[in-house]
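Readers of this paper often ask what the protein records in our data store actually look like. Such a record has a labelled line for the sequence and another for the backbone structure tokens. Nothing more is needed to write down the fold, since each code stands for a local backbone conformation. The remainder of this section carries one protein's record, kept here as part of the documentation.
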Amino acid sequence: MAMCALMIGAMGAWAGDAPTHPRIIGYVGDSATLPHVSARKLDVINYAFGRLEPTGDVSFPSPVADRTLATFVALRKENPALKVIVSIGGWGADYFSDVAATEAGRERMADSVAALIEKHDVDGVDLDWEYPTLPGPGISHRPEDKRNFSLLLEALRARLDTLGKAHGGRHYLLTIAAADSEFVSGIELERAARSLDWINLMTYDFHNSLTPTTGHHAGLHLSALAPADDRAGDKAVAQFLAAGVPASKLNLGVAFYGRAFSGVEPAHDGVQQRYAKYAGSPSWSELLADYIDKNGYQRHWDAQAQAPYLWNPATRTFVTYEDPESLRAKAAFVEAKGLGGVMYWEHSLDRNEALLDVLDQALGH
């Protein structure tokens, strides 16, 4: 790709080169009342979400999006190195396949992204297409998505480079959120990575309402009880590395929420068991207030998976989640593997930034 050499030179420590310390990227959802964000505890804010229209234009469904982005950009006064990125898409977001299918659609989106960046003075965009070639929750999709996604990223990269030259050589960031296992079948990972500053691995939701058994929804490694084809964070990283993605472009995802299951078979305190009902996704704040070693819930630690879980024998309820111990294990894994950093979903779920503080301290910020 002709622009590859120029692109790598412009990216510096934000992409192919190892950053000075592992980066911390936090998704922050829009709301009328925003949570407090400590600008010096993280490197990147991913605003969630912009919406892709059938025309290829990017819009904001939130009526307070302009105010929110202005608030985030103002945090640069506290941390001049802070980057603010607009994330486009999310679960259920449609029209990526249709827009990416034609050169005109790709160019229209690239122009709209450039206009958005200039208007809000943000540092780039993050694409959260879930998932190329797959229907997901009923979105448009086609086999050609695999190649078209690469072409879309290349069109965006070229347009952002042009925009950067017009702004004194500024480098604008282009990133994606991606899942592992069968979800990568619709992406040309090595080719896509050449256009990207980094990839946010959604290494969570391994077990949820769509899976037949309980299990660690964000386990770093497989549990001893898990089948060999189960998903885990280290397996996801290995899959992306094997596809040719540089380690420094991979951010390991962590979850500030849990997954609860009721009517669970009691063997092994509910781990890897059939269940009767999916019981919700309590936030870290809710887990602290009502679950962890309270109301009959007993905390356990799976040393092999490096993951905590709760078991309530009276109600036969199993809860999988992340806590300071699992986050420290993931931070150590990131540093040992030379990964780019960590990404978390989502900031408002973390009361008093307790989990963010763990990441901040563990990764040497």
